[in-house]
User: What shape does this take?
Amino acid sequence: MARIGVFVCHCGTNIAGVVDVKRVAEYALTLPGVKYAIDYKYMCSDPGQNAIIEAVKEHKLDRIVVTACSPRMHEGTFRKAAERSGINQYMSEMANVREHDSWVHSDDKEAATLKAMKLMEMSVAKVRRSEALSKMYATVEKRALVIGGGIAGIQAALDIAEAGHKVVIVEKDPSIGGRMAQLDKTFPTLDCSACILTPKMVAASQHPNIELRVYSEVVEVNGYVGNFDIKIKKKASSVDNKKCISCGVCTLKCPSKRAQSEFDEKIAPRKAIYTPFPQAVPNKPVIDREACTFFLTGKCRICEKVCPTQAIDFNQQDEVVTEKFGAVVLATGFDIFDSNVYGEYGYGEYKDVVTSLQFERLINSSGPTEGHVVRLSDKKEPKNLVWIQCVGSRDESKGRPYCSRVCCMYTAKQAMLMKEHYPEVNCYVFYIDIRAAGKNYEEFVQKAQNEYGVIYLRGRVSKIYEKKDKLIVRGADTLSGSQVEIVADMVVLANGLEPRKDAKSLAQLFHVSYDQYGFFTELHPKLGPVETAIAGVFVAGACQACKDIPDTVAQAGAAASKVLGLFSKEKMEVEPLIAKVDPLVCSGCETCYNVCPYSAIEMEDREVSRGNLKHVAKVLDSVCKGCGACVGACYSKAVDLKGFSERQVYDQIETVTQ
Assistant: This one.
């Protein structure tokens, strides 16, 4: 007969302010198998845990139920307390009477107390049938994969590599650097973006523990934490990087200008053979086959003729390699919101309505105009500029109700840079609210207004239209209560941030959750901000949520520390709460094999009696995540879940329906 102890937590007033915890503890003593029950103010505290340990020893308990908060918060805490008391840690259960009861039923204390009793009783019914489970271990491949070569990926890779572990950076573009490489200066210090990023890029390329895989992408993922088998496709660049000496002659002589430069946000043409930008790392050209005259017509081959090292290889094909990694960091960055959604702003219709990143390329000394800001329509210097904030942010009508966090700051930065370059220029900013929540950020925005004379107008722009060679910006100033009409030479749209277009497909490869916008979802917003629900897969940077450079670098370091924590172990503990198959009952229908989202089931021919082979399912212990999809799908009821058996679940249901 089970000897169960029930421990009811007050959680200060979080639970006790609504639930009569003493009645819950008293009711527990009436349940079959319960030999001891108490209530305590904070069960998760050291005295609370010690009370559990002492009660187990004194009353010879063999399993416990803690009636408290969410298992996600403190299940590990109480499992360790159970283990310290001498019982198997999987002989403990938690009843969540905070999130599931007191926090949502504050108006009816009697009903909340009765519900708490039932929740506790369900956990007692479940733990009554619990079985002791043994810890499982898996080996760890101490090699990390970082997907994304922006500042987040570079920082994470450098931190892991500096600790002595091998790292591979996979970047889909021909160079690492990401969005930060496109910027002119950074807020709030106005230091040169390239000056602080390029040394990091070079350090990553020269580090003995880091391997760069640019112009590459992940195409298939198998395995589990510590042992991921990942297929990486290296796209054909038509250039032999071992022979190429980065002289640039091929790019200089290439006659094709069919393509628009992605790095310059398509405001300038580029050659068919190109490097994205002068400081590119690695500084090796690639051939865009969709723009190359040879691949389109079979003629030209000028780059091949002028190359001094015969590095051009038109026959080069995509290569796919499979490699093993112990941990993965997702650092894929962001895209800017598509301004075409706002038809009233005229983006795409009027050449002088540009995005924030296009303006960054115009004002950048390494940009297509060498830092001279000109109108795209006639190449004249503008005299009046208007910035419109929250384009694709804080706008539920466009499906983006969130704040992108950086737009207020980079708008102030761009206006200040414009005033530094051209002091006589008039700069106007239409804004909803100023959100400058960072170190020295508020002072930075105040400086733009007070020292640089940037004019801020609180209100939205309703319409932009062209009149002769000018842009008429019509909006509102809610502070003065008047309509405003500005004759502008250029309009800059302060685009919000959103995930990369391929972020969802990458998340699906790794079985990582993502929110309604496509940002990768962290394990826990407070306790697991860089981890995901998939063990061994971590997130860093703007792929998880909108953030600035300092926060991105900090999160990259945090992700790297999690990887190093994983690599610090010779063997890794794996949860034993996984599926199991009864081969005698299994019909070999392969339904479980087909529904498993983690590829944790394989089919095998097993000897079930002397000389008789049977086609049955087998669970790969280290791969299984215990999701239970196979249990629900099995027609013959041959699959069950350790720690969540069907009998346990049925007992819980019977408790509720009695």
